């Protein structure tokens, strides 16, 4: 049962740790799993988001991973690099033994980034699904191996609910630029390029709204899902960026402690400028030098709040 436990551990990880993969929002859905004879044998009853009653004949034994959609959600299609909230149940396809499940509590869904999930079959099973869907995934043993655990001996049955998705990039209305601020240009993916002016860095925090979103409002006690890039005012170099990995960050606004990059934290001087702003907004912030930290130019996309 040691290998089965390995899958439970892998599935239970907050699968938004950086793995060096990059996001391509323009990628097509060729990598997404297709329906097959094995996934067609899986059924589940119950409301999407609540714990299902899962039935399937045994053994389910497949050499290719497959996905069937049990309930087609009416929400947006999710893409690589996008953060989603899930509820899930895993079973051994031969013994029907449970290999782990999420809590199915409304306030504690599993948060993952498409393309960053440790289990390959789950990654491809989620790709290009729609929010509100319930998926039946039959995982081939070869597609259950992770970086830290070998593949399982039997096929795995998974029933996964795609509960919510966060924006892949800021989608708010463009706003007039503020004189004297750094210039920002955006790639099609949403990744910003920042040109810093030749003037001296400001001595106080400054902020501007580059895009005005219309979603939920960021509060002091919110946990925000963010994409950001920070560039040094003096050396013009990128100091840090979530766009490098393609994985957004998840940050409690009142602490700044990154959920994705354990042990690191974002400055309160920057985060305070996000409070009161709406999801979909893109905010430019200049934080002055503070001790050993140089002056930085931030471009922050507010993708969602939890």
UniProtKB/TrEMBL annotation:
Signal peptide: 1-22
Organism, scientific name: Leifsonia poae
GO function terms (MF aspect): peptidyl-prolyl cis-trans isomerase activity
Name by which UniProt lists this protein: Peptidylprolyl isomerase
Alphabetically ordered keywords of this record: Isomerase, Signal
Coiled-coil residue spans: none
InterPro entries hit by this protein: PPIase_dom_sf
